[in-house]
From TrEMBL, chain A:
InterPro entries per the UniProt record, alphabetical: Cyt_c-like_dom (IPR009056), Cyt_c-like_dom_sf (IPR036909)
Originating organism: Aliibacillus thermotolerans
Protein name stated in the entry: C-type cytochrome
Highest taxon listed in the record's lineage: Bacteria
TM region positions: 15-44, 64-92, 98-122, 134-161, 181-204, 224-241, 261-280, 287-304
UniProtKB/TrEMBL annotation, chain B:
Membrane-spanning parts: 20-48, 74-96, 108-126, 138-166, 186-208, 252-272, 284-308, 315-333
Organism of origin: Aliibacillus thermotolerans
Database matches in Pfam families: Cyt_bd_oxida_I
Subcellular localization, as worded in the UniProt entry: Cell membrane
EC number(s) recorded for this UniProt protein: 1.10.3.-
Membrane topology value: Multi-pass membrane protein
A single MF term (Gene Ontology): oxidoreductase activity
Protein name per UniProt: Cytochrome ubiquinol oxidase subunit I
Amino acid sequence: MDYPVIEFSLLGNGMVIGLVAFIHVLISHGVAIGGTAMMVSLEYRAYKTNNKRLDQFARTLSKWVLIVTTTAGAITGVGIWFTTMVITPASIGSLLRIFFWAWFAEWIVFVTEVSLLLLYYYTWDKWKGAKKNIHLRVGYALVGFSWLTAAIITGVLAAKLTPGLWTETLSFWNAFFNPTYVPSLLFRTFIAILLAVSFISIIVKMRVKDNALQQEVFGVFGKWMVVTIPSLLIFGVWYLFKIPEQAYDQVIWSTGMEPLVFTTINILGLAVLIIYALWAIKLPKKVPVILVFIVWAASIGFVGEFEMVRESVRKPYVIYDYLYANGIPASKAEEFSEEGFLENWTFATVDEVTEETKYEAGRILYEAQCLACHSIDGWRSRRAFADRVAGWGEDSLADYIETMHISRPFMPPFVGTEEEREALAHYITSEVDQANGEVAKGGDEQ
Amino acid sequence: MIFQSVPVDLELAIPGNWTLLMILLVVSFLMHIVFANLTIAGAFYAVWNEIRGMVKNNPVYDQLASQSATMTSIFKSIAVVLGVAPLLLVSVLYTQYIYPATIFIGEAWLNLLWILIVAFLLLYLYKFSWNRLKNKGLHLTIGLIGTMMLLIVPLIFIVAVVSMLYPDKWAGAEGFFHSLFYYPQIWQRYFHFILASFAVTGLVMYFWNKRKLTQRTKLHAVDGKDEVAATTENVKEDVKVYEAGKSFGMQAAFWTTALQLVIGPLVLFSLDREVRLLYLGDDVFLTSLLSISTLLSVVLIGMLFMLMKTEAKKWLLSSLTTLVLVIGLMGWMRHEVRESYIDPHRAENPPTIEQQPIQIGDMMIE
């Protein structure tokens, strides 16, 4: 807490973080980790079967892996940090303090990974024939290091949900090797392969005219899928067993679907993957384009689901049991409620609630405590106050806020005095009235 | 707005030895910034030489430009990953300053992301289409837009790292464009950085082409019994490019370094009086740091001049060594400037260096 607040009203703060993170997950998993693994695996196959065209295909692939990972991949990775740094500074700041050395090690691994990738790409034509072995070895090392980047960052990501013994010891190693570390890492590994297979399949279908080459590639992918699908199932279930119960109950809820719809969609997704695997093994020459696209959509869907669930089941916390989603440490709630929140907030422009400052005080409280998840207006209507509290009135909203963390356990408690609570209700109500009034005046919608 | 202070630091302690982390910050930042230098000036030189090639209708400059474009595309990947460590360290060590500073320019800060992605993609396109794209004008435009986008990037970073030094001015800041002229130091630092990029890249270009030239002539001497007879067209072409690269790199390095004699003092004079005086006698250590680095810069200019005249290997090696020293000292001074600004605030708003007991869940953790 205690940082200035910024609002990205076009997308909404949560969406800005989510969007950058999602693109990054797709690229880091699908291209940097899975893509390099597939690329080297194809090169290996080409080497073993002495297949020039397959080798050439792997080479072309490596150019795209290089371009995508060193542009959008790398920058969205830094981007997760950039977005969280301005939108949820307390949360990322605390994580950096807990996991500093993990991130530092990650840095060394990153630098090695990029150097290996550059080496791999720029030596394709130099290290041929007798030297092909060396090139392949660089490839193996590259695959190893890209996987290592995931092995490190997963410690951080998983700890946000299940900090485990850290909450008793504050020990780095306890935080890192937390209860969901192993299942999430394994799950992520196979998600990466799934994504890569689905991306590259599309490229093969759209760009490769040579049927024999298509057959070769799908043959290799089919084998990978036989390992990947059961692994995803096993590690996914293992992961679900390890997350906190309260969070577990929120899994389906957080996707916003009916339980039946949720289950059906997931089973269908899985079925598509199985069909693809069987097809690729049995009839690698004739994998239908449409199937390739469905697999692609399904795998992106699975990634989105996994990330969304992981991010939202933590609520109301960003670091479970320690830090609330709005950046306020749970331990400070009581103290601030007694002393007054504004008093303790460095960037507050007013220190206490009076008739004159009521609106301004309410605005500060809203920005500091609600903006992390809500907006006044906006396209995410479930989170927009203009939709949610229209017609409630100031008093009932103020009453609601007092117990909001009990009636809606995914929200953190309001932190502040009674006057501050009323100021917040006052601010939200006036803004909502104004927003709704304007829409009505404009005559559209409602 | 009326607030007037620095946020309270996070409860969780800074995880490591203060001095060690500060050293890591300075060293990792230098590694990052050298590659950033090479990326930005490399892109600029590529465009510049492509234009020269077009104007003078000389394919040698075009090939030299293509060489720069290839190097930039490699260096930029390294610059980005190397940047992770200094950003990590500055976030952990200066949490109370860097976070507000970036939040105040939050929109520009996030715009950095797409600017970098698009610029990098354009520069890849520029490089990979060098011999394939027949429309030279279009090709040049691609490189030009990419380069101009890259030139914006340091400006955003500089606003962030300068504004973090001025908590007392935060309340009056109104976003990125306002900050560009609201905070002191910004433009001086920007041009100081850009010139340094030109100088470093020039010298690296000289060094690289000289090496290539030596390799080329050696190879050539091995397979040819008769020097002249064995000179194939190919080798001749390459040699011309390397020669052009050498002379371009050296001149660029010399002139831009000489210009720093003007910009450097401007940077010094953009600092607040009290801070500046620390470097001008008030503090023995800081004053020596400044004097030594100034002296070395002048020596470097002399060496570059000799290198231009004689092309002797000893001047190349001594210039490179001096350049590395000067860059190191500059990075160190930059750090000391930050410390001079932040020290007074730190006394009032101490960072969490030792872990105090904190409450997690229902428990107090010692």
